[in-house]
Write a structure and sequence with these properties.
With 576 residues, this protein is α/β, with parallel strands linked by helices. It contains 18 helices and 21 strands. The protein has 2 domains: 42-187, Flavodoxin domain (Rossmann fold, 3-Layer(aba) Sandwich); 209-504 and 540-572, no CATH class. 34% of the residues lie in helices and 18% in strands. Strand 10 (261-265) and strand 11 (270-273) form a beta hairpin.
Length: 576
């Protein structure tokens, strides 16, 4: 804008956090020394469980065996996880002793890119030259992860397409066309980068405060909004300017210093100060009264067991669903009844809290759509998903009490589903028939990766940052009318969960349709008889604990089933 036309300046707090990897004291490791030839080498073929990656590795093995002399191969499957698997520390140490170089597959979704690159960087740190097949669409994502995990010179091998859903001739062409890049990546030393790579499509790192000029305050705000969209800092909707005054009020409401570091937020390990969290909460439309809820929400998101990095980067439509229970819901004006998930003025507090989490994930955690959030299609739930428990209509103990907290406390819970569908039933007042109807929804094969995941999943430590080591808890937002039917029959929430578990069954063959058979046979060698009896019905879920229930909403028999992506993490709200 021509300076002569400037009538006013809008000053705001920069909401974008610095990344830990960009700090001067960040831990950084060089790539491993490369051998000049692969002759006589012990070659690791590492598969992270992603579909068709094992087939591609066998094709690479055939080509290497023809090209080099006296090579030996060690086929290794990531020890922990489900379809996306990762190596345990013991496995990584074993590979250090048993292989010289490694070829890894496959980085062809957002979260599996992050985890495969993590494993590659761990191997590079141990002195093992490693390459990892990465689909072109995840190129920027992969290099971002290399920097995040401290080995920016690690070597993704970029191929034009994903390995998933490919025929064997298509896989063979991808392997053939990239073979020389694999050899080069394993035998040519990686030069140290003069400067760390940065996002190509998002601007990170600016002054603590930003100025926007305009003909008036509205024009200046419009210029801010346009610039935020250009930089990638916006969720696509108009934002409240995070002015110093508004941010200061939010910080004061937190009861903590603005420069206090709450945590490093995945996937970019952005340094999340109270000030950065407050700025994004202001942009979302939150008022200071909501700040204690937002800070407890941060505690949930930073809990290692919920695996923020995985679902923040996934190609799946996972979104954080926020549940608030306790007296604070009424104090700050949250909606627990009709349209509790929005939209509308009656749910403004709910919507702004949910929106704040998304903006914090983006601008503090650097989970930016199309860059590090690689969701195949996306979800409207990613804009905002936040409700309050309808405690007045709950015939059982309050949700927070069932989670182990005192009734006098208020709590925040985050569950991260893949999507939602309705439990529609206006007809049944018989609890047995109502649960039978519910089970027609919970019995599914491909609504999310959690359906039948127990067939191929091996859990690891819950503090690893990988969410699938815990339970997949399918959240049920039960409307008051359905809750009352069950309560009148004398059923507890535990009774409902057990009934759903027992009735959620499917033929084994159908449940395995979208799963690699090798993972099943490796994990359950004594159950391979099911391969010859695909009609045998098996449970869809691990157990009744795979369901979580909270009473929400108004009248009419419409409950919601949220298809599980993580377990529920609950934290107490700390009052100022």
């Amino acid at each position: 804008m021509d300076k002569a036309m400037v009538q006013t300046t809008l000053k705001i707090i920069n909401p974008v956090a610095d990344g830990a990897a960009d700090q001067a004291d960040a831990e950084r490791h060089p790539a491993a020394k490369r051998p000049k030839t692969l002759d006589g080498k012990r070659i690791g073929l590492y598969w992270n469980g992603k579909n068709n990656g094992d087939i591609a590795l066998r094709m690479v093995q055939d080509k290497l065996a023809k090209r080099f002399k006296n090579v030996t191969f060690n086929f290794i499957v990531g020890e922990n996880g489900g379809i996306t698997r990762y190596a345990s520390p013991a496995q990584l140490d074993m590979m250090k002793q048993e292989i010289d170089v490694c070829i890894a597959t496959t980085a062809d979704c957002g979260s599996c890119t992050s985890w495969l690159i993590r494993d590659m960087c761990e191997l590079e740190r141990r002195g093992i030259a490693t390459v990892g097949y990465t689909a072109e669409v995840f190129d920027e994502d992969a290099h971002f992860s290399c920097k995040t995990f401290g080995v920016p010179e690690a070597c993704p091998v970029i191929v034009p397409q994903t390995f998933t859903n490919r025929t064997e001739p298509e896989l063979q062409k991808l392997v053939d066309d990239s073979f020389e890049k694999v050899i080069e990546g394993l035998t040519k030393d990686r030069e140290a980068m003069a400067a760390l790579p940065q996002f190509e499509h998002v601007v990170i790192g600016q002054a603590p405060e930003l100025d926007y000029d305009g003909l008036d305050q509205l024009d200046a705000w419009d210029n801010m909004t346009t610039d935020f969209i250009k930089r990638g800092w916006s969720d696509g909707m108009p934002l409240v300017p995070p002015t110093p005054e508004k941010v200061a009020a939010m910080i004061k409401a937190s009861g903590r210093p603005g420069d206090e570091v709450v945590g490093k937020f995945a996937p970019g390990f952005g340094i999340g100060t109270v000030s950065k969290i407050a700025a994004n909460a202001v942009m979302a439309g939150c008022k200071p009264a909501a700040m204690p809820v937002i800070m407890a929400m941060m505690d949930c998101a930073l809990d290692a067991s919920i695996g923020l990095r995985t679902w923040a980067m996934s190609t799946g439509p996972q979104f954080p669903l926020v549940l608030v229970s306790g007296a604070i819901t009424k104090e700050i004006g949250m909606n627990s009844g009709v349209c509790a998930l929005g939209p509308g003025s009656i749910s403004q507090v709910n919507v702004s809290i949910g929106r704040a989490l998304r903006l914090i994930m983006m601008n503090v955690g650097h989970s930016y759509p199309g860059v590090s959030d690689m969701d195949t299609i996306g979800s409207a739930g990613k804009f905002s998903a936040c409700v309050a428990e309808n405690e007045a209509r709950n015939p059982w103990k309050p949700y927070r009490v069932e989670q182990g907290f005192d009734a006098s406390e208020s709590t925040v819970t985050i569950n991260v589903p893949y999507g939602q569908t309705e439990f529609f039933d206006f007809h049944n007042s018989d609890a047995e028939k109502l649960i039978e109807n519910f089970a027609t929804v919970t019995s599914n094969a491909c609504a999310s990766p959690n359906s039948g995941m127990w067939l191929i999943k091996k859990g690891g430590p819950r503090d690893s940052g990988y969410p699938f080591n815990g339970l997949f808890q399918n959240l049920i937002m039960m409307c008051p009318e359905h809750a009352q039917v069950f309560a009148d029959a004398g059923w507890s929430t535990d009774d409902i969960k057990m009934k759903l578990y027992k009735q959620s069954k499917m033929p084994f063959g159908k449940l395995m349709l979208n799963k690699p058979q090798d993972l099943f046979t490796t994990l359950h060698p004594k159950m391979t008889w099911l391969l010859d009896r695909p009609e045998t019905e098996v449970p869809v879920y691990n157990g009744p604990e795979c369901f979580d229930i909270i009473v929400v909403g108004g009248d009419a028999g419409r409950s919601l089933f949220f298809i599980g992506g993580t377990h529920s993490v609950t934290k107490a709200i700390r009052r100022v």
